[in-house]
Amino acid sequence: MPKKRSGGGLTGTQQAAKFLGVSVLAGAVLAGIALPAAGVLGLAAKGTVKGFDEIPANLKRPPLSQRTTILDSQGGQIATVYSRDRTVVPLKDISPYMQKAIIAIEDSRFYEHGAIDLKGVLRALNKNATSGGVAEGASTLTQQYVKNVFVEEAGDDPDKVAAATQQTLGRKIQELKYAIQVEEELGKKKILENYLNITFFGQQAYGVEAASQRYFSKAAKDLKLEEAAMLAGLVQSPSRYDPVNDSEEAAKRRNVVLQRMATVGDISQADADRAKASDIKLKVSKPKNGCITAVNGAGFFCDYVREVFLSDPVFGKTKEDRAKVWNRGGLTVKTTLDPQAQKSAQESIKDHVNQSDRVATAVTMVQPGTGKVLAMGQSRPYGFGKNETTINYSVDKKDGGSNYGFPVGSTFKPFVAAAAIEEGRPANQVYSSPYQMPYPASITTCSGKPWVNTMGAKLENENSAEVGPYPLREAMEMSVNTYFVQMIQDIGLCPVVEMVDKLGVVQGDGTKLPVAPAPLTLGSTGISPLVMAGAYATFANRGTYCTPTAIESIRTADGKSLAVPKSTCERAMDEQTADTINTLLSGVVDSGTGQKAGLQSRPNAGKTGTTDGRKNAWFVGYTPNLSGAVWVGSPSQQVEMMNITIGGRWHSKVFGGEVPGPIWRDAMTGALEGKEGTPFNTVPIPDAPKADKPDEDSGDGDGDSDGGDRDRGGNGNGSQDGKPGDGGNGGFPIPGISLPTNAIGGGEIQGATGNAANQGPTGGAANQGPTGGGDGDGEGQDRSGTSAGWD
């Protein structure tokens, strides 16, 4: 091995190069890149040995990219993700046959020469000159390792990869200098180990451990002679000698390696002959890369974890820095996902909504007090096939979700009630709550400039039998629209704005909600299920809001721990306020619109929501230790859920308590099984005096006969009633909704599957699906500017 210089003298390699002369050094360059010797003398004018010595030798060897393993909270594997399928192993865990085979075929004098094999260079030059073409190269394993380092550093950037592999004299000279540095710093054993871990073996396998698993489903330390010889033969041309696609060519190349091993004395000729006589016997393991391989439907949660990593500054100052760490991989990411909750969510989804249904569902669960995301699933699986998608319906756009979220309807009303109670309104507050009324002429806002009803817009309750006066408890249980509009007329819009800000409630595109009655009372704008589950978890946590978190810990390949983002918890409302909301929403599942969602085994609370045109139906509910949000609807917002079959069951009209409610009930039941039930801190709410009202019909106001869920969107006879989106003669716009630019009749294409992801604000589809094509009922959604959140 060359020794380091003492007193500025040349190393052994440089002395040999000087002895042979610059022309031979140039020949070494050319031989190393397998070019004819013609033109060798052209390098002589470019410099001397002294010039070569002055070339910088500061090769940086970044950590090799490896697979990252994503685990659930119990340590079970969710998925593996990687830009390079590689598992780095020490030399002792690599079969001796593999070590000998790669040296025999790639650099048989590896232990005898320095960074440059001068004998090999001269032999290659002579052979190339004699043949008049390229007959033999002379790159050593060390030189090949250096080139692979350049390629690894280039990553997936095609321009950088091309620069790292270009066949030029300048790059080859630099490679030689780096090779000398590596020989001096690492030594032969470490170079061999690094080479076997960095080299590409085809079939997406980088490094010998991944290659051994890919082709033989075994560890590299267990490779037999003939298996090792086959892998060593792949290095020269992984595609040409690919045993999966051409076993005959692979066998020929393997036999060349075996014969070379015998020739250099690594194995006997008899052993080589026996191995050559054997067939190629593969046991191929398919690559398992990415969130598409996640278990228990956790592909969307897996993708959410990735998005969190790439967006959070705790993992790097810039997005490029964070992407570099993620792509390098080798991480073990332990997440907050609870396998019991995730399994229960997916089973409930499967029981209630089919993958091929015209509508989809998304379920998200959050732990009150910690913000931990415990479950996240949806009915259309993670993928690129029919009725599949890579758009995560549970999260905001920045985290891989739809552009705007989904209108939440009356699930927004508890936020208004909380704001009013914080303002000092009593828990039995009464408003006249007529069946129909105009929006207030003006309502105060935080800016001091009031919202003004310039268009004379009106609103109405579910049916004509809903006429007040009502106290808050009854208004919440029956989801009376006019009651809550009168409430914001009383307290103003500012307290609601301040409340939803404290609860982390934003639109799906990350922007604040419009300051107007419809979005801040009736839930007419799009919000994601994760945001809703997190906000309701605040009620369960007695008024303290905790930001969602998905990552518990990260360990690097060398065992070091990385800092991870933590949930931050801040008080959003008084405990008394939260306790009052818990009391009110317990009534919703006991005797109100959410009866079909109610849990029998433990205290629970929640709220239903059904939006204009029945394009969205929600149930958001919680126990003291788990909060969950369920959305059902068409991602494109093009399906009105009337006379529709969902999960094999026919529904004349879909309500928040009718389809989302049972999904929530079953998902929560399984998630909480075996866990102790704890009571809410409830408060007594005195009854308010009731005035005479018109008799209410015995049904639910939709013309259905079950007399059940009152969370609904039509009138008493199911006819067109003129509400926004129904196409009736009312047709009045809902004020306060600002539409995105070019929202009507078009939008951006951002696709994931062949299914078009239509997403535009008023029925104009802004296709959002990964390829933009499809059936028109794909993976985006309409931000309904006129949705009034009817219940």
UniProtKB/TrEMBL annotation:
Ranges of Acidic residues composition bias in the record: 694-706
Compositional bias per record (Gly residues), positions renumbered to this chain: 714-733
Skewed-composition ranges (Polar residues): 601-611
Biased composition (Low complexity): 751-769
GO MF annotation, one: serine-type D-Ala-D-Ala carboxypeptidase activity
Superkingdom as given in the UniProt entry: Bacteria
Protein name: Carboxypeptidase
Organism: Streptomyces inusitatus
Classification of source organism: Bacteria, Bacillati, Actinomycetota, Actinomycetes, Kitasatosporales
